[in-house]
Write a structure and sequence with these properties.
Number of helices: 25
CATH superfamily of the largest domain: MetI-like
Number of strands: 2
Mean pLDDT: 82
Distance between the termini: 52 Å
Strand content: under 5%
CATH architecture of the largest domain: Orthogonal Bundle
Number of domains: 2
CATH class of the largest domain: Mainly Alpha
Largest sheet: 2 strands, parallel
Low-confidence stretches: 1-16, 279-284
Helix content: over 70%
CATH topology of the largest domain: MetI-like fold
């Protein structure tokens, strides 16, 4: 009894004991969580409490627009993503195998790029209205009716076209994992195609669809480029307005807190919905679903239905951008494009490398040390991915600027030399925001990869005299380098596409491809925005190809 108690006390001391691995893991977790804690501090201790004024004026409008857009985009993405996933999984028709990965390509296009292309195509001077006037002999806008382009409905269409692949990807995986036995029973009971979808397929895939819709709605809440271009006032645009125009950091932090509340509510609802649902296989060896061949007209209808989201989400914006890029090839040599490309590659690469290395250290340190605090902090570090870039911008810039100024004043007082703003005056803050924002991607990939490594292998290495560090570099890393490479690519691609955090945190006269696209499109110079936008899309296609390859396994 005494020996058992002594062993328990020893285990408890080991869990509380700090070594280099547990201390490093706690430090990394603290750095990831610091911007969120900063938002909470700024919101609850503002220098000027703008909450009453916001509640009486603009906040209700921000909240209503945000809720309407997020719910509408969620519903649209659920309908399009689930419907196309059902057709691709359950039926064979011409082009189905190509569409299986073509429907993922809208993920390569940032939503704000799609917004610029849609306006250029549909506006009064665009090719569609110009063609209609030429075809029907109309002379001006008074001769016909055309919906307003820069409006809330257009923002919903653009975001739905850009984000529905999240639902498609998860729904397709859920439909593939279902057993063909359930559909055979439903068919034997007289259920038609729609009844099999509505009563069998959809209920079984509901958890996956709900997870996809939750991701879509969180991305919609955090969007800035689309709603700003369409002049729709949401919570995200409210942050920029209150902070940059009213110069009220506390009010911006309070709006950011509302956004975080929305995001956490969506995440909680999705998790509760999944926890209350239980789905089991009907047998240990269930038969996979076999796609059924559609007849001629059914195949044409399925092809047309699945092609619409691909055309609107990818073909249309790429065609518009390519036409502008080819009509004015000199824009590829415009001033600032090369520097924006270099800046993008630099900050994206550094952020990807730092994020993945930090995630590896955190995951390995938690597993190695067993420290209770580090173990409890590790799941919380994924919160950065749910936080919008504008929210992280506030949580990073204000405390970092204060620390930067204090450090510069201290160095100046001691040495007489002014070092300037080391962190906020360089790309350091941008890289830090990327690391926090996309840390969940690297952590998830690294944790899953290390989980697959048999514990006997590192134990054998340690018994042969290898240190913890050499075990990580010589044993774990060769076994998980594929997953590490995937995490590096995904973090890099998301960093290239990130707009609001970059706009808030970049130093003066420092641009990336994303900010250059935003600036040129805001000036209605889509021709000059086309080259950097196509570069961003090319980078995004790398991630799409990676996801398509992974989903085929």
């Amino acid at each position: 009894m005494v020996e058992q108690k002594t062993r328990k006390d020893k285990v408890g001391r080991n869990r509380l004991r700090l070594n280099i691995w547990s201390f490093g893991a706690i430090l990394i977790a603290a750095l990831v969580l610091l911007p969120i804690l900063s938002i909470l501090w700024l919101a609850f201790t503002p220098e000027e409490n703008a909450w009453p004024h916001l509640m009486a004026t603009t906040l209700p409008r921000y909240v209503i627009n945000t809720m309407v857009i997020s719910l509408s985009v969620g519903f649209l993405s659920a309908a399009v993503g689930t419907g196309s996933a059902w057709l691709i999984t359950m039926y064979r028709f011409p082009g189905a195998r190509w569409l299986e990965w073509l429907l993922l390509t809208p993920l390569a296009i940032p939503a704000y790029v799609g917004a610029y292309a849609l306006v250029d195509f549909l506006e009064y001077a665009g090719p569609l209205q110009t063609g209609l006037r030429s075809l029907f002999g109309w002379e001006s806008a008074r001769d016909y009716w055309f919906p307003e382009i820069r409006s809330r409905w257009a923002a919903i269409v653009v975001l739905g076209a850009a984000l529905n692949p999240y639902v498609f990807l998860l729904a397709r995986a859920a439909f593939r994992e279902q057993s063909a036995d359930a559909y055979e029973v439903a068919r034997a009971l007289g259920a038609g195609p729609f009844a099999r979808f509505w009563r069998v397929g959809l209920p079984l895939a509901r958890p996956a669809i709900a997870a996809g819709v939750a991701i879509v709605m969180m991305e919609t809440v955090s969007d800035f480029g689309v709603v700003d271009y369409f002049a729709v006032q949401t919570l995200t645009t409210g942050i920029f307005t209150v902070w940059l125009e009213s110069h009220n950091a506390g009010g911006a932090a309070q709006i950011a807190l509302v956004i975080l509340g929305f995001v956490f509510l969506l995440a909680a609802l999705e998790k509760i919905g999944r926890s209350r649902s239980r789905f089991y296989r009907m047998s240990r060896q269930s038969r996979p679903v076999e796609p059924r061949q559609l007849d001629r007209w059914g195949g044409v209808a399925a092809l047309a239905a699945c092609s619409v989201p691909f055309i609107i989400g990818f073909v249309l914006p790429v065609s518009v951008l390519v036409s502008h890029a080819l009509s004015k090839p000199e824009y590829w040599l415009s001033n600032g494009l090369v520097s924006a490309l270099i800046n993008t590659l630099t900050v994206g690469s550094i952020a990807a490398l730092v994020t993945v290395l930090g995630a590896m250290f955190l995951v390995y340190g938690v597993r190695l040390s067993g420290n209770m605090l580090a173990r409890k902090l590790m799941p919380v570090t994924t919160i950065g991915y749910a936080a919008p870039g504008a929210v992280l911008g506030i949580g990073i810039l204000i405390p970092m600027a204060a620390a930067d100024n204090a450090m510069a004043d201290g160095v100046l007082a001691l040495t007489g030399w002014d070092p300037g703003l080391v962190m906020t005056g360089t790309a350091f803050a941008v890289i830090y925001a990327y690391c926090v924002r996309f840390f969940a991607i690297a952590q998830g990939a690294t944790d899953a990869a290390i989980e697959r490594v048999s514990p006997n292998i590192p134990m054998a290495a340690r018994s042969l005299g290898r240190s913890a560090g050499s075990t990580l570099s010589e044993v774990y890393f060769p076994l998980i380098r594929g997953s590490v490479g995937t995490a590096l690519l995904l973090v890099f691609v998301d960093s290239v596409k990130e707009l609001p955090a970059t706009l808030l945190l970049r130093p003066f006269n420092y641009g990336t491809l994303a900010t250059r696209v935003y600036e040129q499109a805001s000036l209605e110079q889509l021709g000059q925005a086309a080259p950097p936008a196509l570069m961003v899309i090319a980078v995004g296609l790398c991630a799409v190809a990676l996801m398509a390859r992974a989903s085929r396994r």
